[in-house]
Amino acid sequence: MKSALTDACTLKLNNFEGPFDLLFFLIEKNKIDIYDIPIFEITEQYMEYLAAMQELDLEIASEFLVMAATLLHIKSCMLLPKHDEKDAEELDPREELILKLVTYKKYKEFSEILKDREAAWSKVHYKLPEIIPVIQQEEELEVSPVILRQCMMEVLNRSRERMSNDSRKMQRILDQERVSLRAKVREILGILAKGIKFCFSKVFSPLTRSRIEVATGFLALLEVVKMGRASVDQPVAFGDIYVTPEKPKKKRENRETEKESDLA
Amino acid sequence: MDCETIIEAVLFASGDPVPLEKLAEIIEKDKKTTRGILANMQYKFEHSARGIMLRELDGLWQLCTKPELDIYIAKLGALRKKPGLTQAAYETLAIIAYNQPVTRAYIEQVRGVNSDSVIMTLMERNLIREAGRDDAPGRPKLYETTDEFLRVFGFSSLRELPPLEMNEIPEAVETLPTD
Amino acid sequence: MDCETIIEAVLFASGDPVPLEKLAEIIEKDKKTTRGILANMQYKFEHSARGIMLRELDGLWQLCTKPELDIYIAKLGALRKKPGLTQAAYETLAIIAYNQPVTRAYIEQVRGVNSDSVIMTLMERNLIREAGRDDAPGRPKLYETTDEFLRVFGFSSLRELPPLEMNEIPEAVETLPTD
Predict the structure, then answer these.
(1) Partner-chain contact B153 A156, CB within 8 Å
(2) Contacts of C83 (CB under 8 A, 6+ apart)
(3) Chains sharing 3 or more CB pairs under 8 A with chain C
(4) Which of A120, A168, B9, C158 gives C51 a disulfide partner, CB atoms 3.0 to 4.6 angstroms apart?
(5) What is the pLDDT of residues A84-108, one digit of tens each?
(6) Which fold has domain B87-160?
(7) DSSP secondary-structure letter at B179?
């Protein structure tokens, strides 16, 4: 093989698309079997080419340097003595490179075919389009019952979510404000059961209870009085109301009054 | 190479009218011969099942489509736009379909957004129509789906609407506040 | 009205490739019948003294001049010849054509060199386009060839790409002599 340096100088130096392109060129030039690359010669020629590029002050793309490193690595691997049979069966260090080169070759060949076809078909000429007015045509709607149903479910779910957001807010208010008459009646009866007299405004103090609670408490008190379980006394108009427990009346009568209060 | 073949290709590629002189130069004939060839071509185009014809405009020659084929060419310009429905339209249509007749207020309650323009679109598409007025205060308009709705969705009657499983239907809808 | 007449006029007026579906719709035939009519027309154009021919591009149909008439059309002048592609562009296009949709990383792996600007050029020439993103980490863009690729290189569909015979590679590698 001749020195590649002289050759390389005559080459259009930056004509190679990449390291594969250059390697491929060297392989073709030396009429080498791509499946049996003499790595020592190829590496040498490749390095000489890079050196030539450097001499000419051409910028060497990093890919070319990576390939140089790869070639040198393969070369050193092949220089290592093989220890035993097993090593011999191991992968040829060139294999990966060869695979890549063969693949590259296929596409390079096809790119030649593309070039030829392009040349052939560039002889075909087309006509510029006429100006054709665009008519907006209303065509059949593309709809789906499945989507209709799905949208219904989505909108309902969204509605539910929105509602539950609203009702959660409402609930929070109601949680604070909801006062059941029955609960208040039970509360008052509970106090009366202890047999003690109490001041209504102390138990249902506006300081500790909401307005609704106080009002409901008052209604509950009236219920309790109606039931005959307590008597009330208000010594001063608009003053404190004192509640005194009363003995329950006959059972039957009780039940009736309780029923009434249920209805109320 | 046949002169008619060349002229057809040249006029086709040009698109624009080409002067007789230019054509004569290309086929390497004199003007009179070229004119004869063109006239012959013109006759053949006219009297055969060709879609195009040869037209002379003041010494310029041009290929163009035959005028009677205009209606077919116009179809090229027809945008093959398969309109679908937007999510909003589907939702609104679904609410109407499943609850008809229904007021605009109800639709907006369920969707949670103003639905005026969607209802307009659905009316324009003839998928819904007005169906009298509700007895509620203000006597709001009611909406229902049309036969076109059934046809487009391929239902033979409203009973064919895909069922909504009862457990999937949120109670919220039944207890809607009338805000 | 004769279907061939209509198709000729429509394709002439269009200039651009027209989908089979559109032609079928215009002549009011089914796709199969339309394809038959087109094949018949194609044959007739080819075997008569016509200057134009009918070509298919992946289901799209277009009229164009016969390639052998190029020399005459060139005499019209003003032919807009696009500059040729670089070697790198052909290589990249070859890799994309056979592996589409394909990532930039794959192209660079095969070519052994950065291919950003080549891909940009091919995109500008409308020979390739983006085709979504790969599922791989980083979700890299995918590239595929366009109808313009088919048109420029004279394929009626990607199925016409000549086989690459990649299958011969593995065997060859297995029988590597150990130098």
Answers:
(1) no
(2) none
(3) A, B
(4) B9
(5) 555 556 677 778 888 888 888 888 8
(6) Arc Repressor Mutant, subunit A (1.10.10)
(7) -
Cα–Cα distances in angstroms (integers) from residue C148 to residues A127, B25, C39, C58, in the given order: 15, 33, 21, 10
Measure CB to CB from residue C69 to each of B5, B18, B72 and give the nearest one: B5
Q: Would you kindly state where each structural domain of chain C is located, as residue ranges?
A: 3-70, 87-160
Sign of the dihedral defined by the CA atoms of residues A180, A186, A190, A193, in that order: positive
Whether the complex's predicted ipTM surpasses the cut of 0.95: no
Could you count the other beta carbons within 10 Å of the beta carbon of residue A33?
9
Spelled out in words, what is the top-level CATH class assigned to the domain B3-70?
mainly alpha
Domains B3-70 and B87-160 share a fold: yes
Burial class (CB in 10 A: 0-12, 13-18, 19+), A208: exposed
Predicted confidence band of residue C172 (pLDDT cuts 50, 70, 90): very low
Q: Does the distance separating the beta carbons of B170 and A157 come in below 8 Å?
A: yes
Find the mean pLDDT for residues A174-180.
Answer: 64
Q: How far is C171 from chain A (nearest CA, A)?
A: 11
Q: How far is A121 from chain B (nearest CA, A)?
A: 14
Contact C75, C118 (CB under 8 A): no
- Chain B 89-118, residues with CB within 8 Å of chain A CB atoms: 90-91, 93-95, 97-98, 109-112
Q: State the virtual CA torsion across A99, A103, A109, A115 in degrees, nearest 10.
A: -150
> Model confidence over A179-194: pLDDT tens digits?
678 888 888 888 888 8
Distance from CA of A95 to the nearest CA of B (A): 53
What confidence score (pLDDT) does residue A102 get? 86
